[in-house]
Design goal:
This protein is an alpha/beta fold. The chain is built from three helices and twelve strands; from the N terminus they run βαβββββαβββββαβ.
């Protein structure tokens, strides 16, 4: 499985085109699996379950329709996006188990920084508990998951908040959930950088999905 890291921001449309081409090649048996880590310029994406009323500020950033599962989410600088292109035919043809494995990978990476990630029935993604303004155990989302499966090959993937501008989430109802906040590793008081997060994710994916090796980004 390849492990690719883009050093500069990648336009969303370019990333989607590259992902779709790579997923098709994996399904055809002409390319290897790959996890592609990157950042995007600020934008909102609408998954297949997105509700128009959850886009609160349509003119704030570009809005892209996406074929992934889920609702509205934000991508931007300081957020590590990992696009996961794996052949589930060669692994396990179980989409739910695949999503659970992605959640487990995020939780394992967070544990590297002493952060306890949680999952909750009916809410895809990873959450943390914290005291906010005197309210104990408030749940805040630190990572989102949205995947698409075509010919049993996955694409799209996860986004982990490292140090994004959290005010940018104010233009949407993130993932359709208005009763919970959004946080990041730096917001939790952890001065980590993207290279540290990348290594934690690499170790987590190696543990859960198998050996990885460095490869070139898709664009």
């Amino acid at each position: 499985m390849g492990w690719a890291v883009s050093q500069t921001a990648v336009p969303y449309v370019d990333a989607v085109q590259a992902m779709e081409a790579r997923a098709a090649a994996i399904a055809d048996g002409t390319a290897e699996e790959v996890v592609w880590l990157l950042e995007h310029p600020p934008l909102y994406t609408a998954g297949v379950s997105a509700k128009p009323e959850d886009l609160l500020d349509p003119g704030r950033f570009p809005v892209h329709s996406s074929g992934r599962g889920g609702q509205f989410t934000y991508h931007g600088p300081g957020q590590r996006v990992a696009y996961v292109m794996l052949d589930l035919k060669a692994r396990r043809r179980d989409v739910r188990a695949f999503v659970q494995a992605l959640e487990a990978a995020i939780i394992l990476a967070l544990d590297h920084f002493g952060v306890t990630g949680e999952i909750h029935e009916g809410r895809v993604g990873v959450w943390v508990r914290r005291r906010v303004s005197g309210v104990p155990d408030r749940e805040e989302k630190i990572a989102a998951i949205g995947v698409k499966i075509r010919r049993w090959v996955s694409f799209h993937g996860i986004s982990l908040n490292v140090e994004p501008d959290l005010s940018h989430f104010g233009g949407i109802v993130p993932c359709g959930l208005s009763d919970h906040g959004v946080t990041s590793l730096v917001d939790l008081g952890l001065p980590v950088d993207m290279m540290e997060v990348d290594e934690a994710l690499r170790q987590a994916f190696k543990t859960l999905f198998g050996e990885v090796r460095p490869t070139e980004p898709l664009v």
